Write a sequence for this structure.
């Protein structure tokens, strides 16, 4: 065996990786829950004061956000789909014999 294969397939190292993953995931999960909790309680309070200034900006941002898929499709169509040769389309219906 080559030395690199010994390093990759060493069972003790695989167990160590599984152990680290098992210890890491609960910490990440707890952090996600904490950040979500803090955001859910602070964002509405911060939004109440300048609501009349934020709403028009949010509407503009939403309108621009809705344009993004159309622009991406236009670029994809120009670069990829337009280069696919179009041929004779065969009907998918079964022929009765």
């Amino acid at each position: 065996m080559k030395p690199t294969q010994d390093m990759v397939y060493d069972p003790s190292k695989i167990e160590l990786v599984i152990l680290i993953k098992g210890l890491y995931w609960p910490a990440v999960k707890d952090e996600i829950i904490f950040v979500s909790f803090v955001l859910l309680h602070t964002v509405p309070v911060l939004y109440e004061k300048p609501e009349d200034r934020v709403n028009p900006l949010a509407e503009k941002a939403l309108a621009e956000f809705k344009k993004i898929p159309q622009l991406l499709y236009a670029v994809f169509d120009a670069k990829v789909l337009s280069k696919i040769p179009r041929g004779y389309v065969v009907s998918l219906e079964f022929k009765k014999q």
Residues 86 and 92 are 17 Å apart (CA to CA).
